Amino acid sequence: MGGFPILSAMTFLPLAGALIIMIVRAATAGSRDETQAGSEGRTALMAGLIISGATFLVSLAAFAYYNPAEPGYQLVEQYRWYQNISYKMGVDGLSIALVLLTTFLTPICLLASWNSINKRVTEYVVAFLVLETFMIGVFTSLDLVLFYIFFEAGLIPMFLIIGIWGGPDKIYAAFKFFLYTLIGSLFMLVAVVYMYQAAGSSDFEVLENYEFARSAQTWLWLAFMASFAVKLPMWPVHTWLPDAHVQAPTAGSVVLAGVLLKMGGYGFLRFSLPMFPDASHLFQPVMFALAVVAIVYTSLVAWRQTDMKKLIAYSSVAHMGFVTLGVFSFNEAGVQGAIFQMLSHGIISGALFLIVGVVYDRMHTREISAYGGLVHRMPIYASLFMLFTMANVGLPGTSGFIGEILTMVGGYQASSWAAFGAALGVIFSAVYMLTLYRRTVFGQITNPKLNAIKDMNRIELICIVPLALLTILFGVAPNLIFNITEGSALRVLNLMAGG
Which residues form the NADH:ubiquinone oxidoreductase chain 4 N-terminal domain (predicted)? Predict the structure, then answer.
């Protein structure tokens, strides 16, 4: 790149765009009449789409300069900040894949809000752009202090998105989300301070090669786990997620499930395994047990839900259990499967929340009992819903199958009972997803209000069709992802082995 700081440009472009939108709004505040004020939201949304779209293009440019054959960090930028704390950014296969997922989903989220967000639209766009900067920053940081700043800062815009534009119980859900994640991260902050004092640096590459004492590893691992377990989320600290999903606007649910949950799995792969290998081996049976409980228990809970969004929220907890299983398998199949599962789940769960949002915008209810017979009035919707239902179940030919089967293969190599428990979750996911689809799409229309319901419009199709294409593409050509992430997966395992 000839020294051009492309990662910094990509990371802070959304933040710069948000500042410009706020400055323009402040400058024109006194001269707006009612008509102009009414069109301000559309202008802000259009500006947000342009800025987030430009960020996606910059991320593609960064990816074009990334060499998958080199397993280490690339496109590195480093500037001394304070003593041995640096502003250091870089990417490997794991982080560049999650960056692309983030920059791809953000414009979709803003476009999906075109008709559903009608109040304080400018602030809504600003919140999303600021959130995008913090999410990208998490995946591009190569300094522990910088990572922690981005990791925690992301709570603020997400808290506002839920608390201002959410449903009737939005305040409760927003505070629950904020407190759960903040309290978990306070333990990580203590660990960050200890690691800096012990190693004399907060640089990832220094910390990866620093051998912490076995007793220290145990406590550091638990401190990081407290934060990542909430973020993932793992049972039993998952209860904030269904409330947050149900109350969040549709786009908020998409970015929450699509990106924010992935920070937990990313944290385990970036910190817990390579920096605390002895503690990771020590707690492997515990993590397997928690993964199986999450997969089986939350699948059963999902089956009994009457709210479509809450059902998909519990489904997310179950599917992220496969990520935990794969990560702590400590083999290539498991780690590669966990990374693939994170990317696949980001696409599929995001699409499912958009699917729910389509009918919610028309009927203003997410109760499953309010629907039935949608195939008669919305055939395009029914077809896309079927695709993502099958992908969520893990049907071969979709990306959902690849991630689940690889994590179970990796899990079986480490523990046959854990793989068996995860397999039960696959069966249960078929039960609750097919039940949801049958009750909402098939049968006769019994609710008179559904007789006037219209099929998906152009904006909704533009949001969902790309996700459908990626679900199929990655399902039939998974090497498109594996070729990017293989070097990073092997590097994590080598660091665990002391290589």
Answer: 82-135
Give the global pTM: 0.94
Summarised one tens digit per residue, pLDDT across range 367-399 is 999 998 999 999 999 999 999 999 999 999 999
3-class SS shares of the chain: helix, strand, coil, % to 5: 80, 5, 20
Q: Where are the alpha helices (DSSP H) in 114-261?
A: 121-140, 144-153, 155-165, 170-199, 204-208, 214-231, 240-247, 250-255
For the beta carbon of residue 449, count every other beta carbon within 10 angstroms.
Answer: 13
What secondary structure letter does DSSP report for 125? H
pLDDT in tens, 16-68: 999 999 988 877 765 555 455 557 778 889 999 999 999 999 999 999 999 99
CA distance 295 to 420: 11
Find, among 484, 285, 450, 297, the residue nearest to 367 by Cα.
Answer: 450
pLDDT over 80 (residue 220): yes
Cα-flanking dihedrals φ and ψ of residue 21, to 5°?
-60, -40
pLDDT digits (tens, 9 = 90+) for 446-469: 888 888 899 999 999 999 999 999
- Spell 106-121 as b/e; 16+ CB within 10 A means b: bbbbbbbbbeebeeeb
Cα-trace Rg, the chain: 22
- Domain residue spans of the chain: 283-499
CA distances from 234 to 131, 240, 241 (A): 23, 11, 10
Please give the structure tokens belonging to residue 210.
């620093």
